[in-house]
Amino acid sequence: MKVAVVQTDPQFGEKRKNIDQALHVMRSVSADVYVLPELFASGYNFLSIEETRSLAEPFRHGETYNNIKQFAVDRRCYVVYGFAEIDDDALYNSAGMIGFDGKEEVYRKIHLFDREKLFFQPGNLGFNVYDTPYGKIGIMICFDWYFPESARTLAAKGAQLIAHPSNLVLPNCPNSMPTRCLENRVFAATANRIGTEDRGGIRLSYIGQSQITSVKGEILHRASSDRLEVFVDEIDLTRADNKNVNERNNLFKDRRPEYYV
Ligand code: ACM
Predict the structure, then answer these.
(1) What number is the average pLDDT over the span 14-21?
(2) How far apart are alpha carbons 121 and 90 in whole angstroms?
(3) Confidence band of 212 (pLDDT split at 50, 70, 90)
């Protein structure tokens, strides 16, 4: 299957512009699954709950959903994208997965980072793996990578590819994903953003370096730290199914949970 990682440069609050930018880059390549950054349409650096609410959408309604769905149907593909979700009165930092075939799933970020805790509820839907026409895809969002249990849980549930929408501000993720992928024998597609958001005295710079990482921990592709980019890698997801390291070691069967906290 072909996976596209889309690295965008959102402007805070400019939803229409940010969606158009993403669609423009996405249209320039052909892929089965496109992965977009966390909160790609709204921007990230919120200042209040009211502001977050004003940019949030229910999962199956609104500008972001409608545009992504149309793209998925037109291009007969799947798209995983980060968005600010409102469900009743609760706000979540979420990622939707929309397929051309009607598949629609949502993941709500479990490990909120820093000031996200001021605006969003922690995710309450768990880590889930979804069957797609290409293979089994699990989703985590940005800072979830920092907790090895996130990727571990997705791999244990059968994920072959982890779609990883991100807005990375710390430098560590790109060089850490090879370990996450190696220890779980899973592919990962980390889609990050670029640019700086300087709002209300809070300045955040995003590191770019979106990446596709293989089951062997190889960096198949890494984007620049400062350019709008999309890249596509062809990957064989079945390589994620064999968890044997050698004749005597298996990544999952050799676990010793009785000694773990
Ligand atoms: C992050 O989780 N967006 C750093």
Answers:
(1) 98
(2) 7
(3) very high
Instruction: Give 116-156 pLDDT, tens digit per residue.
Output: 999 999 999 999 999 999 999 999 999 999 999 999 999 99
**In this predicted model, what pLDDT tens digit does every residue of 218-240 receive, in sequence order?**
999 999 999 999 999 999 999 99
C-beta of 140 in contact with ligand 1 (< 6 A): no
Closest ligand 1 atom to 143 CA: 2
Annotated catalytic residue: which of 142, 173, 181, 197? 142
Using only C-alpha atoms, what is the Rg of the chain? 17
The CA distance from 56 to 32, in Å, is 27
Is the CB of residue 144 less than 8 Å from the CB of residue 110? yes
Domain ranges in the chain are: 2-259
CA–CA dist 2, 241 (Å, integer): 18
If you classify domain 2-259 with CATH, what class do you get? Answer: alpha beta
Which residues are 96's β-sheet partners? 81, 106
Residue to mutate (ligand 1; options 119, 168, 177; most atoms within 8 A of CB):
168
Say how far apart CA 3 and CA 15 lie, in whole Å: 24
